[in-house]
C-alpha cells in the first residue's frame, strides 16, 4: 500500500485486541521513525517511554479516565517533554552534533551560545510549552510509521498528567507526560474502523495565495 492508502486505512483505534502483540522488530522500526522526527534546533527536548508491563498499563488506565486503549494495547508510547531547558541539555546536544558530524566543538560554540541565549531566556512556563509542542511532531511520525506497518494507534490527551508523572516517576528526571499513543492491533469489535473519515474538503482546508 502507498502512503495515502495507509493513512486512509488508519483511524484512532478505540478498542484493541489484547491478545495480539507488536513484534520487537516492528517496535524497533517505530523507535527509529520517532528518532528521525524534526525538532526545533534538533534539540530533541523530550524522551519517550514505551510501556509493555501490564501492571503499569492497568495503573495508567486508571489515570486515563478508564480508557481501555491504554490497558489493552500491545505497547503504550508516552511522550514526555523536558520541563526545563538547561545548559546540560544543550551541551549534550552539541556533543552529539560534534561526534555525529565530525565538527570540532570549538567550531560549534557560536551556535551553542546562540541556543543558550535564546532558549534559556524563555520564561519557565513558555519553555515547557515549547518542549511540549515538539513531542507532537514525533507523535505524528509514530502514527505514520504505524500506518506503514498496518499497526493501529490512538493519540490521546485524555489523561491526568500529574498521575502519569507520579506512576512513572517522571518528576525526578525533569519530565512531564504530555502525549500518549497506545499501539497494537484493532479488535474486530471496534466498529469505528468501518466508519468513513470525516474531513474538510481540500478546497475548504487549503488556500493558495
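Sequence proposed for the structure above (209 residues):
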Amino acid at each position: 500500500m502507498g502512503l495515502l492508502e495507509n493513512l486512509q486505512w488508519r483511524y484512532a483505534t478505540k478498542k484493541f485486541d489484547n491478545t495480539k502483540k507488536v513484534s520487537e522488530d516492528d517496535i524497533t522500526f517505530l523507535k527509529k521513525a520517532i528518532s528521525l522526527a524534526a525538532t526545533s534546533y534538533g534539540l530533541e527536548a523530550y524522551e519517550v517511554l514505551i510501556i509493555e508491563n501490564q501492571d503499569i498499563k492497568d495503573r495508567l488506565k486508571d489515570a486515563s479516565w478508564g480508557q481501555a486503549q491504554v490497558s489493552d494495547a500491545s505497547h503504550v508510547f508516552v511522550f514526555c517533554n523536558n520541563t526545563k531547558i538547561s545548559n546540560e541539555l544543550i551541551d549534550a546536544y552539541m556533543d552529539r552534533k560534534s561526534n555525529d558530524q565530525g565538527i570540532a566543538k570549538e567550531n560549534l560554540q557560536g551556535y551553542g551560545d546562540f541556543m543558550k541565549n535564546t532558549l534559556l531566556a524563555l520564561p519557565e512556563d513558555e519553555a515547557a510549552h515549547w518542549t511540549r509542542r515538539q513531542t507532537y511532531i514525533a507523535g505524528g511520525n509514530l502514527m505514520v510509521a504505524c500506518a506503514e506497518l498496518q499497526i493501529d494507534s490512538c493519540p490521546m490527551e485524555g489523561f491526568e498528567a500529574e498521575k502519569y508523572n507520579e506512576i512513572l516517576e517522571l518528576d525526578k528526571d525533569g519530565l512531564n507526560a504530555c502525549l500518549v499513543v497506545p499501539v497494537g492491533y484493532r479488535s474486530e469489535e471496534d466498529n469505528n474502523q468501518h466508519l468513513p473519515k470525516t474531513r474538510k474538503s481540500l478546497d475548504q482546508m487549503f488556500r493558495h495565495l
